[in-house]
Amino acid sequence: MWKLAKTICNLDNIYPYLMLFLLHVACSYHQRFKSIDVRLIEVLDGDTVKVRFKGKEEKIRLLYIDAPELGQLGGDSRKCQDIGKLSKNILEKLLSENLILYWRERDRYGRILGVLKNKVNINLQMINDGGAVIYWFAKFRNLEHKRLYFQSQDLAKKRKIGIWETSKFYDPYKYRKKIRKKASLRRQCSENHFL
Predict the structure, then answer these.
(1) In a shared domain, residues 53 and 114
(2) How far is CA 77 from CA 80, 168, 186, in A?
């Protein structure tokens, strides 16, 4: 046993084992995704849609991306617009009636987390077209996958398209956090009875 441990710990011998392990992790991650044909029912916002498959309706939250909330404003005093609506419009233009959904789990709200595809990867195209940003807590398959999303976002920023055309843009995650904090303060004030 000691001899085997000593052999594996030798740096010259560990490289093949490390490569096999990493390959196994990468492959098993991808294999955990299930694919299914779905029919689009409704676009709810820039990162959530309602689809039908196996006779029932499901909400799908697009993986890796985060879109502005409906009603979230961006821009300056000259041009202020609802960038949540802009994001939703970009998603609507990308989608077709019949799609392929790749998914593996649900979020805490019961929505399926997945990637939608027709001729293109819709999630990635939303980043590329300036319809969304990369979700802060996205768990990418590998470094190359992550790099692809970040390159697309950088390109959209440089081209100033979609949500990036507004001069002032508030990240959707920070925006939701700020809204929750305000709501919490309002709730605390209404619960306190001042004398």
Answers:
(1) yes
(2) 6, 10, 27
